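Re: beginner question about structure tokens

> Can someone show what the tokenized structure looks like for a real chain? I only ever see the sequence side.

Sure, here's an example I had lying around. Input first:
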Amino acid sequence: MTIKKRFIATINMIDGLAVQSYGYKKYLPIGSPVDLVENFNRWGVDEILIQDIGATKSNRSPNFKVIEMISNLKINTPLIYGGGIRNCSDAVRAVNAGADRIVCGNLFIEKIDEIKKISDTLGAQAIIISIPVKTVKKDLFFFDYLKKNFLNLKLMINNINNSNLFSEILLTDASNEGFDKKFNMDIFNFFKLCNKDIIYFGGLNSLKSIKMIISKKKTAAIAQGNFLTYKELSYQNFLEKISSNFFRKSYYDNI
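And the corresponding structure tokens:
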């Protein structure tokens, strides 16, 4: 049996407000994240990812209030939360508030011991590692958007491949995230070296590139953000054009 890919609707959030994000630089307010979650649940997406950009940038704790508000909706769609998770305590509290899984980024780079604590407490299946990637002079780097630093991606691959602390990677084309541009296929080709399942995000606007990416074994899901906020038909038309045969298999059915 072929395991179908998942479609993840992504909501970026700042100060409790959902925003459209453009390359981690520009943000356009669009409304309540809770309302968007209700829409995405109704449309039948496989998972919903909330990324609290504001919490991460301000070194604040996760927005547990928003997680709880979403949990109180009693929706069927699994919720992934990322942003402001600084330690195991934050991660556990986010899950207790209603998140099914969590996303950690810089914590994997700077405090791997905390990732181990989270993994020991919640299980590796509950953890997704976020890796934003940018191209600098034709070379790919991990983009630390908090410190505006670029880290060696080749060294990170070794650490990633040798780690059993998490289940998947959220791989973001940070240069094209939010823009009407094509996904940087150099990123896809580079991560062929990776032995982890990958969620692709950012610049996925070309049907040709999306079909190619989701046809690969290590692609677990694709995530989409800005284009979903306009209308329900954006998602339905997308499935028709891509072929819904690729999707509609929940990750949680395989755990």
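Each token stands for a local structural state, so reading them left to right follows the chain. The chain is about 35% helix and 30% strand.
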